[in-house]
Amino acid sequence: MTKSFANQIDAIFDKYDRQLERIAKTATREVFEEAQKPRSRGGRMPVESGKLRESLTVKGRAGRFTGATSYRAVAAMMQPGDVVVGGWSTGYERLAEYRAGFREAAATSWPQIVARSIARAKATVR
Description:
Layout: H1 5-36, H2 51-54, E1 57-60, E2 63-66, H3 70-77, E3 85-87, H4 93-100, H5 102-108, H6 110-124
Antiparallel strand pairs: 1-2, 1-3
C-alpha cells in the first residue's frame, strides 16, 4: 500500500525537524565546549584549579545547571528556537576573560560552529 501524498510530506517534515533539532543541540554543546576548552588542549580558558570551569552555570528549557559540563543537560533538552544562557561566577571570571578571551572567542566562532553542524546534518540526510 502506498503512502498518501500528505503522509509523504509529513514524513519529510519529521525528518528535517529532527535534523534541525540535532543542529541546535550540537552547535549549543560545541560553543560551550569551545569556551570551556583549557589552554593545555588548544583552547583559551586558563585552568589552574578548575574553579573557573566548574563555575559555569547554564540555563535553558531543562532548567538551570552548574558545573563544568552543565551545558550538556541543557543542550540535550533544547528545541530549535530556545534561548540558552551561560556564564561563569568565580569572582575573577571577568579578569580571566579580559586576559584570555575564552568567552568572546567561543561566541565569535558561533557562525562557524553552526555551519559545521549543518554540514554534518546534511551529510546524514538521504
